[in-house]
Amino acid sequence: MKISRAAIALYMALVLVSGAALGVFGQRYYESITTETKQKGNKGGNRRPTPEEFQRGAISYMHKRLNLNDEQVTKLGVIMDGARAAMDDVMRRTMPEQAAIGAEQTEKIRALLTTDQRAEYEKMLKEREERMKNKGKGKRPGGPGMP
């Protein structure tokens, strides 16, 4: 069976049009996803959710997945609020101890290093401190000697 030039041209045009249509729909889909992400406040796509956002998402997921009624959703929120408050309390109580461990680690590292290494280490610590200030992650556990 021989295919005519007209049929080949028609097939090629069909492939071209299909590719163009796929490109258009793919672009629209991509834009809808990125627009939705920006509207939710996650502009970079890598921002961690706040504890409140995380809790709302968890409750929503459990509501749908477990088919919870309104009373159960309310009680779940109360349970999660209590757990978060308890975790915050534990963090507040242990932060001084964590800071002391970190400071001890830093002093031991300083004692280990030569004078030149110590100067570079101090520079590393200052850079880390700046990164933490800029990113707002100063509340994370760990001492100043930890990268």
Structural features, described:
This protein is an all-alpha fold. The chain has a domain at 1-47. 78% of the residues lie in helices and 0% in strands. Helix 2 (51-66) crosses helix 3. The longest helix is centred in the middle third of the chain and has 43 residues, at 70-112. It is flat and about 85 Å long. The model is unreliable at 137-147 (pLDDT under 50).
In short:
The chain has 147 residues and is mostly helical.
Strand content: under 5%
The rounded distance between the terminal residues' Cα atoms is: 70 Å
Question: How many runs of DSSP E, i.e. beta strands?
Answer: 0
Q: Give, in order, the helices and strands.
A: HHHH
Helix content: over 70%
Overall geometry comes to flat
Ordered list of secondary-structure elements with their pairings:
Layout: H1 5-39, H2 51-66, H3 70-112, H4 115-135
Keywords:
single chain
